[in-house]
Write a structure and sequence with these properties.
mainly alpha, 24 helices
Length: 503
């Protein structure tokens, strides 16, 4: 079973069960048990080996991993920040201010997308920050939580993967072999990252065309969850400043935390410039440092302004923790499932598929890589893991640094990873988007899936066009591919709108 299609069975079963049963916790756990059973059968380790692999090599090892612990701490601190802003009345004050400046449902959705585009540093940070800021405004204008979760998710990873200064750019640069400028290669690939650009374009088209399709239409029509919130007691002294200051502090201090881990503030030979520091940063540690500093600064400012008492500030910390428990539990199970998949050699199996495809279908290779990358990210729930597997293969297959197919193929790898991440219920970014919008996770996945698949289809055709036109040069290929992709996307949405209206 190791190194074969069976290595992908556990995540496929977990994802299928989650979509069928609408219950994510048990579905993930069943996938974990299947992965542990497959490993124990191959290793002939019996029941003791099964339990050891699932809990010791899987769950406990994942929860003791420094990167994962950093992400969990960041989640808890961010949850405490959101609770503080709400308790201080900052979110309420911002909602009152927004009533005077945002006049419609369309405006609320456009503001959500624009804020998501502006917060390009990190996808986790994007999801939770945009959710906490825009939730009161979208609630007022009857935007369902499912739609808010989609807008958050569609401006998290897609924006980070086309931003040269982001944790994602640093991750991609880190997977490039020594002797090459990883960040320069990332920047060359940006114009061909069709899935990311088309996803952002689709959001604006859906908003301005004023229609939804698939399960999203049902939630937007009913908006049942908009009346379920219980209003908690908040400070009447809160101002817009009490929301803007913590958010601005988070952005600035998290950025400083990330470049600190990359050596920006080091002295002598260890000092790195801003770009190199970002490329070498440890996003997990940097986000913890930045968010902790922002939390302490926010508490101090609230005390100086006498917005809420110190006791209430301390109460918000466990409250924020409680709010993040569902996301933490899903992340823990998703990481454990990924550990089971890794132990079964899924990466080696998929890498073999890509290398086999590269030999005979060069013009189709960008589209093939896009599909395989999307499938791998969907099954494992990780974009960064997909980058680590496929980007070195793309570089090895096309060693010429100026080869158009090399740049297009690397773009296809990154785009496919984001697409699969978008569709996967076990993706950490998808989980964060659900947490940011306070939306039922399975509802978010089921409503987002038709939208993501639509953009996937358009991107797949566009990569075929790019593969066959690359002989004309990188610039000409880009122009032709972009025109074809835009036409396909607009035509697809027009057809869907017509069918939706008829239905």
């Amino acid at each position: 079973m190791t190194g074969t299609f069976f290595s992908l069975v556990p995540p496929i079963v977990a994802i299928a069960l989650a979509l069928i049963t609408k219950e994510v916790y048990s579905s993930l756990f069943i996938g974990i048990l299947i992965g542990g059973a497959f490993f124990a059968i191959d290793a002939s380790s019996g029941f003791t080996g099964f339990f050891t692999h699932v809990f010791n090599d899987g769950m406990i090892k994942q929860l003791s991993d420094s990167w994962n612990v950093g992400i969990l701490v960041f989640l808890v601190v961010l949850g405490a920040m959101v609770a503080l802003m709400n308790k201080a009345g900052g979110s309420q004050a911002f909602g009152e201010w927004a009533k005077k400046h945002i006049k419609s449902k369309l405006g609320a959705q456009v503001a959500t997308v624009c804020l998501g585009v502006l917060i390009f540093i990190d996808d986790y940070f994007n999801c939770l920050t945009v959710g906490s800021v825009m939730r009161p405004i979208t609630k007022k204008y009857k935007v369902s939580r499912e739609k808010l979760a989609y807008l958050i998710d569609a401006t998290a990873a897609p924006v980070c993967i086309i931003a040269p200064i982001s944790s994602w750019a640093a991750a991609v640069a880190g997977f490039v072999s020594e002797g090459e400028n990883g960040l320069a290669l990332f920047c060359k690939a940006i114009p061909f990252n069709f899935y990311a650009f088309f996803t952002i374009g689709m959001m604006f088209l859906l908003i301005f065309m004023n229609f939804e399709f698939g399960p999203m239409a049902k939630f937007e029509k009913s908006r049942e969850n908009m009346n379920e919130d219980i209003e908690e007691e908040v400070s009447t002294r809160g101002k817009v400043f009490d929301l803007v200051f913590p958010i601005a502090s988070l952005i600035i201090l998290c950025t400083m935390g990330m470049i600190y881990t990359g050596g920006f503030f080091a002295s002598g030979e260890e000092h790195k410039n801003f770009i190199d520091a970002f490329a070498n940063s440890d996003a997990s540690v940097g986000l913890v440092i930045g968010s902790f500093a922002a939390l302490l600064l926010t508490i101090v400012i609230y005390q100086i302004r006498r917005v809420i008492s110190f006791k209430d500030c301390m109460t918000c910390i466990p409250d924020g923790f409680k709010a993040m428990v569902p996301a933490i539990l899903i992340l823990t199970l998703a990481w454990t499932l990924k550990a089971m998949t890794d132990s079964l050699g899924a990466a080696k199996y998929v890498a073999g598929l890509v290398e086999g495809s590269a030999k005979g279908f060069q013009n189709f290779l960008p589209a093939i890589i896009f599909v395989i990358s999307a499938f791998l990210a969907f099954a494992t729930g990780t974009s960064w893991g997909t980058f680590g597997i496929l980007i070195p293969i793309c570089i090895a297959v096309f060693p010429g640094s100026e080869d158009p197919l090399r740049i297009i193929s690397i773009s296809a790898c990154m785009a496919g990873a984001v697409a699969g991440d978008h569709c996967s219920p076990i993706s950490d970014t998808t989980i964060m988007a659900s947490a940011g919008a306070q939306c039922e996770h399975v509802n978010h996945v089921s409503t987002q899936l038709p939208y993501a698949i639509t953009v996937c289809g358009v991107s797949f055709v566009t990569y075929i066009v790019a593969g066959f036109t690359q002989a004309l040069g990188i610039f000409a290929s880009g122009i032709i591919s972009w025109l074809m992709g835009i036409i396909l996307l607009v035509a697809s949405l027009l057809v869907l709108k017509k069918k939706f209206a008829a239905k």
